[in-house]
Amino acid sequence: MEKIYVKDLKEYLDKEITFSGFVDSIRDKKWVMFVILKDSTGKVQMTIEKSEEKNAKLLEIMANITVDSTVKVKGKLVMNEKVKLGQMEIIPEVIEITSLADNLPYDYNNLEGVNIDTRLDYRWLDLRNEKNMLVRQIESTMVMGMRSFLYENDFTEIHTPKLIGAASESGSEVFEVKYFDRKAYLAQSPQFYKQMAMAAGLSKIFEVAPAFRAENSNTYRHATEFTSFDLEFSYIDSYEDVMNMEEDLLIAGLTKVKELYGEKIKEVFNKEVIIPTKPFPRIKLQDLYQELNTRYNYHIPEEDIGDLNAEAEKLTSQYALEEYGHEFIFITGFAATKRAFYHMRDENGELQGYDLIWRGTEITTGAQREHRYEEIIKNAKEKGLGDDVKFYLEFFKYGCPPHGGFAIGVDRLTMLLLGLHSIKETEFLFRGPNRLNP
């Protein structure tokens, strides 16, 4: 049986249908019972007239059901202009209870005052909330828009291993796991393997997959497991090519979201989906420090010199809006000491990479990668990396084209798009230092 969804019901008017879904609410009036049924795409009314003798069994079934139980209904879908939900209603002939719901631990339709940890303990219920369901659908649409753009531009989707034998990719801690008689680690990103694909001659690749960071960070934007949208491509002239690619990718994703959910996002989240114009503003880090000092009397702390911190990122977005009328801004000129060894440096030692800030938060670190064998060996030694990255260094020994890429945290992107307060609200199942269940 092919499931009929609420969004497609109009195609079945005046027809006998079978509809399956959750019981959202029941209004038991003197002469009639109204039952609202729902699925992931919307709600529909089922109407049972009490005056009709044939409905006695249906009324008995519904008298013993609980909200959030699931049912399978066979009946006729008819037009009724008095019905607020799409001017349609189902007149049932057969009702089957497919599961009976217990009393709920909290009302997911009214989350005000419900602790976020309680919500996450029962995340499968929390996701039944219409707003939370919408978050999932919007994120899916964003990824679809970006994915489609890359397919249209001849990118190949790859799937890299998440169990790796090397622990030293960046400054972040890694999760160690037992792998038979030796140690393995959960991948912090597919970076090494993206570059292996460049050495293999694949030219343009991307991956949407989990990444793992063993950082004890309890902030609104960090998670120990998150979904990363990574891409890498060859034959670039500079990291400007990488920034241009990211501009096009984000515009494609946001355009698809606005097309399908723009009005709904404005209605539910009170947020406008703004399609950015090209080019995004660009500024050197040292020039940015000066602007933040002059405009907002902000001085970067000594430990953060050569990089940005959360407060500086917020002020940078404020500056971008004031100076350029733009929500996005690229920052370049970071210190090599603050970035991974595989980022290229020019003849003056300047890092050939960038951060992208959106709505007060960094969403991307991107760069032209070092593809020259001798240079990347030198960089690795400078960072104190040895045998752990030996396998990776081999990728560049037999020829590798100039290339670059970046990664976007999908959950963080969705959080900023919808103006939510925490990544806990955007991840399907949040993973943090203190949460490993459900």
Structure, explained:
The protein is an alpha+beta fold and 438 residues long. It folds into 2 domains: 6-99, Nucleic acid-binding proteins (OB fold (Dihydrolipoamide Acetyltransferase, E2P), Beta Barrel), CATH 2.40.50; 124-157 and 234-425, Bira Bifunctional Protein, Domain 2 (BirA Bifunctional Protein, domain 2, 2-Layer Sandwich), CATH 3.30.930.10. It is built from 11 helices and 16 strands. The protein has helices at 56-63, 116-121, 123-126, 130-152, 191-200, 239-269, 285-296, 310-324, 373-382, 390-393, 410-418; strands at 15-28, 32-39, 42-49, 70-79, 88-99, 156-157, 163-164, 176-179, 182-186, 204-212, 225-234, 282-284, 328-332, 353-358, 361-368, 403-409. The strands form 3 sheets. The protein has an 8-stranded mixed sheet, sandwiched between helices. A 5-stranded mixed beta barrel has the order 1-2-3-5-4. Strands 7-9-8 form a 3-stranded antiparallel sheet, with no helix packed on it. Helix 4 runs antiparallel to helix 6 and helix 7 crosses helix 8 (310-324). The protein starts with 14 loop residues before the first strand and ends in a 20-residue tail after the last helix. The model has no long low-confidence stretch (mean pLDDT 95).
